[in-house]
Write a structure and sequence with these properties.
BirA Bifunctional Protein, domain 2, homodimer, Rossmann fold, 2 domains
Chain lengths: 454, 454
């Protein structure tokens, strides 16, 4: 097989079973997002290059796929377009362009692929879908609570019984770093090191902190405090109390802890209740967050199922004035990986191409076979027609291979007598029914095989 | 506004109302395609450059968006990837890569965007969606009939009452050109000129034929024959008879006419019945067609709503052996343009963000407001929560602007008494109900306003 029959590196084809599983998750995500009052938005796959450059930091810039100028400029090798790197910068652009028509509190969801020229690895692709919700225009913590509730409801309805929602706050991080004695000019370094805690463990983080010039005393104090805290996992009140006492006397830090407390209180009784873990070690990579930061995680997946936070300065960047915003992004690929490993897909997500096949006796009866298929489709069934005359045995074998539930065949005898033979592929049993009752009888066979007719 | 707040040239943002209209059409298309036994396939947005180059002719090659190599090669300006130009070449690649696992008669649908660096114009974009169905593996004309039926059923269910399905055959075209005396070496030129007939009229086609070196006698004979035929519009039998007599004695042409006749016969009684117009002037641009060619059109749209045909040599190109195939592609953007101009969208496609808004009295009652929203959502409603305390008048005004149907508010009095005020935004009437009955009562208000609850 030539290399040109392979998809590009880091991308995948989704065959029918894959698409059905993806669609099952996307439909559920969309349904929950809509119940929470979010509206759909879609943006183009590519943007003007200048819209994306400089928005994702040095590392992000490097991962942007750039598109060559067309026409006479092609030979120059210059790029003027770039593939969408995330769904947040396009949202900021939309917020600027349609500022006069969008509602004051614009709540949008967007479920589309993004592209990053990352090194492909297990579960990491160059094309992957994000399922984002963002609420613009309000600084109220009701927004954070609603986002967490929506994410929790999605994961609960998908069948995740063991997820947790890690919650932290950028200002709490800053106050914490101040409290353990790390000077402001080392904060960015400290957060980069902290971001790796889950992957590399506390000792390696401590080592990196020292390499990055953080004094041993401050680093040790911080690691000891974090180590003590991580034993508090299931108890947001306990973690909040420890955090509150650490940042005491630092107004921004105290306000951040109060905000976290408020988000926990607003989540009581809802889908996020009992799921939230206050996690002062949660850093989130992106530098644009300004308030609460959050992440959804399950024990058997390194990394997160999704994450987000408040970013009050990004959305207004194309407008020149700040617009408060808070968002959460679920990673479709990671959700699918865990669901596949755990066998979490319901039977409905695995249904085959069709329930019914109409066999083709001979050329002369083809029009009758198509008319039969029409009746079956009109009754709501998904129906394949064997496209050419062939031995009945071969046609039944094909239907078995395709896992069709029922096959209808009108041979010479049946056509003369105005009947149709219906074979139940699960039981192997055959019945002969009048042609006029064929659709009804096929539906009854499907009910017998335990399949729902839509 | 800086240019960076605009989407890239030839692309569009889809705001919530746009997405809902698009989704309405896509859902219906998908439903019909599935009833016909087609299965979903999705392929990556970009392919290896070599997979796409040389597949679309000189003009097509020029319109492919190429993606720069990443990393150290970026400075070279070389491209190694390209955005999908259509959904057919990716299907051919998939057919090669998964040949051992795909069914013998692989019937797939694919609804995804494609990208072409075309000059943008009214209704012509650089990013647009195609809704393709293709059936691989059979040369039976049952396939053509099923494709036409599926396309006709989509258009009928969308509400198009006046579409026609233009049908021709590549071999009939060849025999026709032979019959009027155009030599084989002029056939390609003749078809290029013919392809413009709808746009420029018969006189301009005749002029172009002469410019392209077709003898006046042959050109005149052909144009006269076509002119006579175009009066036969509603009558496939008449057109078939004329075509049959023109190509008489040319076996390939006679077989082609018989095939067209067979497709018409197989369509009797189905959704395509009465829609098919045998149109010997239909050429279709792409050179890869080998058999039937077809197009769906409405009178008020220049160009087609979709088209397709049989192409028995393309799918096997990555395999080195021919695989018969026939496909039909509906153009989502064109369907949407006509539906918008004619006002064909049902109310369900224009529903707003949410049916219900929960107002927020003060910070202290925020948790109760979220609990109320939770109950409403659990009963199936789409619910927005006003995110911050504000004057009730302002909140009601916001709800009116957003066209929400019902607003629920629990102020101090209501909370003391365990009740909720429900305001019907259509009638302006307010009722006070016990908190425990709030969801039920809100649902009842929605029924009154004539909206269905999902």
């Amino acid at each position: 097989m030539s290399s040109s029959s392979l998809p590009a590196r880091g991308t995948r084809d989704f065959l029918p079973d894959d698409v059905r599983r993806r669609e099952y998750v996307v439909r559920l995500v969309r349904d929950v997002y809509e119940r929470y009052g979010f509206e759909p938005l879609e943006t183009p796959a590519f943007e003007n290059l200048e819209t994306l450059t400089g928005k994702y930091g040095e590392e992000g810039n490097r991962l942007i796929f750039k598109i060559l100028k067309r026409g006479e400029h092609e030979a120059s090798g210059a790029a003027d377009l770039a593939l969408r790197y995330d769904l947040t910068v396009p949202l900021a652009r939309v917020a600027a362009q349609y500022q006069s028509t969008l509602p004051k509190f614009f709540k949008r969801y967007q479920i589309q692929p993004v592209w990053r020229a990352d090194r492909p690895a297990r579960g990491r692709f160059r094309e992957f879908y994000q399922c984002d919700i963002d609420a613009l225009g309000s600084t109220s913590l009701v927004v954070e609570a609603e986002l967490l509730a929506a994410a929790a409801e999605v994961l609960t309805r998908l069948g995740f019984a063991d997820f947790e929602l890690r919650l932290n706050h950028r200002e709490a991080l800053t106050a914490m770093l101040e409290a353990v004695g790390i000077p402001p000019e080392r904060h960015a370094d400290a957060l980069v090191a902290l971001d790796k805690l889950d992957k590399v463990g506390i000792d390696r983080v401590a080592a990196e902190l020292r390499e990055r010039g953080v004094a041993a005393e401050a680093s040790d104090a911080w690691m000891e405090w974090l180590g003590g805290l991580r034993r508090d996992r299931p108890d947001p009140e306990g973690a909040l109390a420890r955090l509150r006492s650490l940042v005491a006397g630092r107004p921004a830090g105290e306000a951040a802890v109060a905000a976290l407390e408020r988000v926990v209180a607003l989540s009581a009784g809802g889908p996020a209740d009992g799921r939230i873990r206050i996690d002062p070690s949660l850093a989130r990579g992106l530098s644009y967050y300004t308030g609460a930061i959050m992440e959804a995680a399950v024990p058997d997946l390194a990394g997160s199922l999704g994450g987000g936070g408040r970013y009050d300065n990004l959305i207004g960047m194309f407008l020149g004035r700040p617009i408060p915003a808070c968002g959460f992004s679920l990673g479709l690929e990671r959700i699918l990986v865990v669901m596949a490993e755990r066998g979490m897909f319901p039977a409905a997500a695995a249904r085959g191409a069709a329930e019914v096949m109409v066999a083709l006796w001979d050329e002369a009866s083809a029009a009758d076979a198509l008319a039969l298929a029409r009746d079956l489709r009109a009754s709501g069934l998904r129906v394949d027609v064997y496209p050419e005359p062939d031995r009945p045995g071969k046609q039944f074998k094909y239907a078995a291979l395709r896992q069709y539930d029922v096959v209808l065949l009108a041979g010479e005898d049946e056509r003369r007598e105005g009947t149709v033979t219906i074979k139940n592929m699960r039981t192997g049993q055959q019945v002969i029914v009048p042609r006029a009752r064929a659709a009804e009888a096929a539906g009854a066979q499907l009910t017998q095989t335990g399949k729902d007719v839509e």
